[in-house]
Amino acid sequence: MKKRIPVVLLACGSFNPITNMHLRLFEVARDHLHQTGVYQVIKGIVSPVGDTYGKKNLAAAQHRVAMARLALQTSDWIRVDSWESEQAQWVETVKVLRHHHSELLRALPHADGPGYVALPQAAAASPQLKLLCGADVLKTFQTPGLWRDSHIQEIVEKFGLVCVHRAGHDTNAYILASPILRRYQDHIHLAREPVQNDISSTYVRQALRLGQSVKYLLPDAVLAYIQDHALYTGDSSSAGSSPTKN
């Protein structure tokens, strides 16, 4: 049997808060890649943005990281990485990919010295790092001034994308509308969630502010954390403005 290419999936975002939809992205993407017969997903990484992202109603990074860790207590292959959230300045997505790619190279069997971490035996070959996202993120590549063309090209050419379909989005149209995405469309894997899932962090925050139930939209441990720390109960906004380029 042909040896499969090891893959690490990286999801960047606010995770404000992390929901069951975020967790499903990883599972659907892994199933899709495995079904190609070419790839073997060995790890998933959740990377919450830092406080300097400046998004409205963004909970402090320490809370978002803590909630993500609680959400992933039952996962044996997805973990939270706090590096991005700990940086003094907002980090562009491509730079987060570069960081984790460097970390993966350092973890290869030939590595030595401080910080060496052995990968699973199945990942003896250099693993590929792919950006995991929903179709809504793919659409933002079309937003003028939001992403640098050079960054989009590096993401799809060097790393690759695994995009999970979301209701109301036409991923193929997004690809065809972008010369860069069209050129590297072989590097973009489109995965389809068999069960329609429209859960969003925005809806969860709105429901919490209205005192409505969000049980079963996110893990119970995350909901308990939100209640214990009284998160998302007011309309306060974080200081600063949103970055203009990724």
Give the helices and strands, then pairings.
Elements: E1 5-13, H1 20-35, E2 39-48, H2 61-71, E3 78-80, H3 93-106, E4 128-134, H4 135-140, H5 149-159, E5 161-164, H6 171-177, H7 179-183, E6 188-191, H8 201-209, H9 220-228
Parallel strand pairs: 1-2, 1-4, 2-3, 4-5, 5-6
Helix pairs in contact: 2-9
Protein traits:
globular, 246 residues, alpha/beta, six-stranded parallel sheet
Q: Which structural category fits the helices and strands?
A: alpha/beta
Main sheet characteristics: 6 strands, parallel
Strand content: 15-25%
Q: What is the total tally of β strands?
A: 6
Low-pLDDT residue intervals, each spanning 5 or more residues: 111-119, 235-242
Helical amount: 25-40%
What general outline do the C-alpha atoms trace? globular
Mean pLDDT figure: 89
Please give the alpha-carbon distance between the first and last residues: 40 Å
Number of helices: 9
Strand order of the largest sheet: 3-2-1-4-5-6
Radius of gyration: 18 Å
- SSE ordering: EHEHEHEHHEHHEHH
Describe this entry's structure for a reader.
The structure is a single chain. Helices cover 36% and strands 15% of the residues. Strand 2 (39-48), helix 2 and strand 3 (78-80) form a beta-alpha-beta unit. The protein is globular and about 50 Å long. The protein has a 6-stranded parallel beta sheet with strand order 3-2-1-4-5-6, sandwiched between helices. The longest helix has 16 residues, at 20-35. It has helices spanning 20-35, 61-71, 93-106, 135-140, 149-159, 171-177, 179-183, 201-209, 220-228, and strands at residues 5-13, 39-48, 78-80, 128-134, 161-164, 188-191. Helix 2 (61-71) runs antiparallel to helix 9 (220-228). It has 246 residues and is an alpha/beta fold. The model is unreliable at 111-119 and 235-242 (pLDDT under 50).
